Amino acid sequence: EADIYQTPRYLVIGTGKKITLECSQTMGHDKMYWYQQDPGMELHLIHYSYGVNSTEKGDLSSESTVSRIRTEHFPLTLESARPSHTSQYLCASRKGHMGEAFFGQGTRLTVV
Amino acid sequence: KNQVEQSPQSLIILEGKNCTLQCNYTVSPFSNLRWYKQDTGRGPVSLTIMTFSENTKSNGRYTATLDADTKQSSLHITASQLSDSASYICVVSPGSSNTGKLIFGQGTTLQVKP
What we know:
The complex is a heterodimer.
Chain A: E1 4-7, E2 10-13, E3 19-25, E4 31-37, E5 44-51, E6 54-57, E7 65-66, E8 76-78, E9 87-94, E10 102-103, E11 107-111
Parallel strand pairs in A: 2-11
Antiparallel strand pairs in A: 1-3, 3-8, 4-5, 4-9, 5-6, 7-8, 9-10, 9-11
Chain B: E1 4-7, E2 10-14, E3 19-25, E4 30-38, E5 45-51, E6 56-59, E7 62-67, E8 72-77, E9 86-94, E10 103-104, E11 108-113
Parallel strand pairs in B: 2-11
Antiparallel strand pairs in B: 1-3, 3-8, 4-5, 4-9, 6-7, 7-8, 9-10, 9-11
């Protein structure tokens, strides 16, 4: 059982609102990732971190921002949500670059 | 062109039948390859991991193969069950990446019908 948690599981918000998606892991993993996935489509990397105070943008451009102040916590923030941000957001973590990536259950975001 | 290509894109089989999913990759150098299962609306879960020195690995009714020379992997599902209906994703770890970035295939959607 993976010890990585995302909250909320589902979120419906209005356009222009600021939101933060939470991701926490208790496995002490150094590397953490955020992926965006539309229904039936592949995962796209939007942010990653290979340790505290290190964050990088992923392969897919995103208006979201992330922070990594603590090893176990990797929140993602949207300053002003838009309908185009409607998607599923998956958080993952792994130890080193050989370890298995463990995924959270995902946050299904709908912006109306 | 994607560095990890999966086929078929989707597959429908009857319960109890076997099936094989394919993954071709061009990632080099290569560290390891994993097959993940993703149920609808959930996060992916690892089924198997293959390093370049391994040819076959089994996990219950799932058997993965790897040919590092041709850069091909397959996932064979035996005696399929309704609960096998999911998306199966091939994920490659580059050997030279210090950031641990993973290369994802687009997935194969499997539907098992009674």
